[in-house]
Amino acid sequence: MTAGRPLRFFAYAWGEVSEDLAPTQFESVKRLGALGFKVNPEMVLAKDVDRLLAHYAHVGARRSDLGYDIDGVVYKVDRLDWQERLGFVSRSPRWAIAHKFPAERATTTVEAIEIQVGRTGALTPVARLRPVTVGGVVVSNATLHNQDEIERKDIRIGDTVVIQRAGDVIPQVVEALKERRPRGAKAFEFPQVCPVCGSHAAREEGEAVRRCTGGLICPAQAVERLKHFVSRNALDIEGLGEKQIEDFYSRKIVREPADIFTLRRRMSAGAFDLYSYKTKPDGSRALGKDGKPIVTNKKSIENLFSAIDARRQAPLPRFINALGIRHVGETNSRLFARAYGTFSAFRNAAIAARDRDSAAYEEMLAIGGVGELVAQGVIDFFGEAHNRAAVDRLLEEVQPQEMIAAADAESPVAGKTVVFTGSLEKMTRDEAKSRALALGAKVAGSVSAKTDYVVAGADAGSKLAKARELGVRVLTEAEWLDLIGA
Ligand SMILES: [Zn+2]
Known about the structure:
This protein has helices at residues 25-34, 49-62, 80-86, 147-153, 219-230, 242-250, 257-261, 263-268, 298-309, 316-322, 330-340, 343-352, 359-366, 372-383, 385-395, 406-410, 429-438, 462-470, 477-483; strands spanning 72-76, 88-89, 92-93, 96-100, 104-117, 122-134, 137-143, 160-165, 172-176, 201-203, 210-212, 417-421, 442-444, 453-456, 473-476. The protein is an alpha+beta fold.
């Protein structure tokens, strides 16, 4: 693809050369030109600062006619032996300096403020502008970043605004000209619901971004959510990858997780067809001896259906992870699965925990590793009726398994608090953690008097020192693996 693009460059500098091209910058570049490289015809040799500035002004005036984008000019010391003596400060040369042009600005009016929903559910306001030319480019919209930005700059529909385009950055709204504000222009009210799916849009404390909570059903997020749902750490459905999800979604065969499990039924009922048929030169389907069309990929489709069926009894942590609840990934899904044992208990707790004074909320926060942010993600998710309905539809097809705690009780590390530090050899830190969690241990990030074991790999630092100070039992990686019987 890159080869197909009309990429060209001007040679401004050189890398390794066996001998200097010339004693000066200017002559070296000329020499590169003589050797056949394209060099910039705007390059000049200036004798003093006034001439540099005059050239800066000259290039600035011609900027929009150059045929390519620039954001300034660069001045370089001409003599290469002086360049060498001046040297570098970290990676910046002392013998070259960029003189940037001011960002190009223009004035226009805001015709509308629209909210875009990204694939992570983030609501981003965009100003639709009366088209205006800035630096040779017609600009008709500009990002407003988020709710705070609109409030801080007090940008309203109908306002005359100054916009700027710096380099290749998306145009920004610099300010609203208040004196030109139309009478009656009202402050913009940021929506509390997702404009795409109508779900509640929540804003976490300390976050500038408001997000749609309709993760399972929001079309703006659906494809990404579905990809996550079938991914390796979630339901892990073999043969159902990102490509198939995109294909099924665009053909409207799969819009939400439950649809994956009804594929076979709906196909049998003739709602759609996933098979590919052998065709004759005239385009008609080739028929076999039995008079039925010859199916060329029957086996792969049957395999896909079997792989889907194999996940109807999903392990609880995978099932929770698959839902894509904000802040609830693999580790937290396991914590919830262990704490609640069944999906219905988890869900009931999440719904009850909406009341901050409830025992359910208190219990959720009492789960080691679950903080307020995670709890909020869970509460928001189940607080959204659209999500509850999508989960209900999913539960008609999938029975998440109960989490069996029996094996854990026998584990020598069940209920113990473990801290991993240093680099481990046999596994990554994440693998070690999930292994420990699976055996019923609690994994903490810092050492305290409550820590039972510190597993110290190579180059363990302050945590190891702290453990020794507190008299916490320190294990090598090998001793730990011994202890858990690995
Ligand atoms: Zn939405």
